[in-house]
Amino acid sequence: MTAESTVASPAEHQRVPKRAVSVLAPRGPAAGRRGTPGRGTRRPRRTSPAPLWLVDGGAVLLGALVLPAPHRHPLVVALLALGVLGLNRRAALYGTSAVPGPLDELPAVCGRIAVAWAAVVALSPLRSLPLAVLVTAVAMHCAVACGGRAAVHGLRRRTLRRRPCPALVVGPLSTARLVSAALLRQPDCGVRPVGLVADDPEVLGGAENEPELPVLTTALEARRALVQNGVRTVLVVGAATRVEKDAVLRALAGHGCVLWELDADSPSYGMGGQLRGAGHLAGFSRRLLRPQGGRRFGGAGKRTLDVVFSGSLLVLTGPVLLVCALVLRAMDGPGVVFRQERIGKDGRPFTMLKLRTHRPASAHEAATRWSVADDQDMSRFCHFLRRTSLDELLQLWNVFRGDMSLVGPRPERPYFVAKFSQAHPGYPARHRMRTGITGLAQINGLRGDTSIEDRCRYDNAYIDNWSLWQDICILLRTAAQFVRPTGS
Question: Exposure winner among 237, 430, 449, 460, fewest CB in 10 A?
């Protein structure tokens, strides 16, 4: 059965009358010039990571000077430099969108220096040197690197205090006003809000003695403010803003803006501190954000894993699927494959495949009935298929085709997507990633008739902290639970 193809919108946005939008005049030589957007104003230069590269390279040379002259072979020094720079680059220690404190980077920098030295010592004649000499060289390297990086960050911090980065704040108007007022009260934070991107420009009134920022309601107005003010920073606030403003955020990111998500509502008790680029801005927890539709969540590695594993499993489980299909055909007649419309990545519908274990009375029942796991009309063999999840094996073909992934939030029918999106603000954010056969929620027992709120929280935590290794761990835990009679 195929469910209805029309998805009800979770919430219709109210249209507001357009009004003239004033944008704060940019500071600097371009201020006061008028003309078409993009002319008469120059975007500020991007902060270059070159000083950090130079500091780390110089630290390698000074650390190598501690070694006895016969052991200062250029090849050894070059390998050490490549190792340190490569490890630091992989850890995003050359990013320029955040300015860490003097001690914030110390563990990461010193740890990677130690790893690089250990690898070079193990693979070169340096292993014959006394331990005291090697420890002194590593200590010198760490001291110079940390001191030099602290000096570079301190210079950047002073520059930001003198000339804070103009920023747009995107989110619900009340929350955006709260965040912008807090940032304006903290000029040393290095960010100066110049406009609010929100849906309700008629709600007026800011904090007393603080300037009222213009409210931008369309992508065109946001782009005009971006060009006129040289905006490079966008602050995203509000739990559902990433989904509601996805088109605007993608447009801003396409113009070179760095997107930060600020936790303005409650303390962050999750794993946000482990995310790349995490930190705080004027006391608000923040992390780097990429708009939906980007390649952050998966990319080539995840798709390669999906194709290899799903193709291999289709071959290995082919005989099992054939036997199950023949038994179903003999017991229940033709139509052993069940096709149902589900909602996938970015809200796009697709047809999901399963072995048929239940025959709905109508298309409406197929689209709106929540669970049939305890249906008394189901045969014992069908109950067995559902308990062991063998009826889900056909979804490997959906994975191989690219409709789904092996690991990701479970796809749901259009009726329930609309219903759950209205009841749970974070539910639409699950569709940032391709849906999956299994996921973090499922291996934590959230299958069948369980809490949607809990599923939503686990699914979004999985997406926010995605890694290929996490996918492999979830697959291994799923394999261990495969025959556990939990139902679906």
Answer: 449
181, with CB counted inside 10 A (0-12, 13-18, 19+), is middle
Report the SS3 class of residue 36: coil
Which pTM was predicted?
Answer: 0.48
Sign, CA torsion 227/229/234/239: negative
- Tell me, yes or no, whether 279 and 370 share the same domain: no
Nearest to 474 by CA among 446, 429, 439: 439
CB-side neighbour CA atoms (13 Å) of 181: 14
Domain that holds residue 100: 50-160
Same domain, 250 and 281: yes
Note the residue count of the chain.
488
> Which residues are CB-contacts of 417 (< 8 A; sequence separation ≥ 6)?
7, 343, 347, 427
Q: What is the pLDDT of residues 226-239, one digit of tens each?
A: 888 888 889 998 76
Rounded to 5°, the CA angle 455-338-462 comes to 20
Query: What are residue 260's DSSP bridge partners?
Result: 235, 288
Choose among 485, 399, 482, 409: nearest CA to 440: 409
Q: DSSP letter for 412, please.
A: B
284-289 and 279-281: which strand pairing?
antiparallel
Q: What's the rounded Cα separation, in Å, for the pair 181 and 179?
A: 5
Task: Report the run of H or E that residue 53 belongs to, with start and end.
Answer: helix 50-65
Question: Residue type for 26, please?
Answer: P
Q: Which of 160, 187, 202 is the C-terminal boundary of a domain?
A: 160
Kindly report the average pLDDT of the chain as a whole number. Answer: 78
